[in-house]
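Table S2 (text version). Query chain:
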Amino acid sequence: MEGNERWVTNALRHPDRDPTRRQLLATSQEPYGAVLSCIDSRVPPELVFDTGLGDLFVMRSGGAALGPVITGSVEYGPMTSGTPLIVVLGHQRCGAVSAAYKSLREGEPLPGNLQAITEALRPAYEQAVRENRADPAETMAKAQVKLTARALRGNRDLAPLVSKGVLAVVGAYYSLDTGEVEILNGAPV
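Corresponding structure-token output:
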């Protein structure tokens, strides 16, 4: 969050982004966090959190949707090197969520494998419909973050790490307008 504050205030440090750091990490890595974010080009986690080489494992999927490969990738850091933090990062005006919302609302499937993203986002859509708020796509995007973070916290392999207090799984939401990351759920106490 300190890195995000630097991003928001344009006080960037660009830490650990030089050949010395690259050489130091050439044989091993110990990232302090894993971020599952959307594929949106406007939300690069390394920049949003002002991090450097070796700081984050980053996985990206449309709408931060989970599937076996993405879930395995998220599990990798905590299960192999003790990475203590997972952040599920959704964002304002998400195109994948908006497309899935429209597809589900109108009953019109998206082409190709885009429909797999739509189906992965269906629980968030259903929650947004139940909440019936003014901006249903934004409601759906936030619901997706919370549901994904909850699913990861309850994951068979990650849940024991969460219950021991060695892993936090946090849901967060990025504002395209301000650059600020808001914590939605799962923040350690």
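Notes on Table S2: The chain has one domain: 2-185. DSSP finds nine helices and five strands in the chain.
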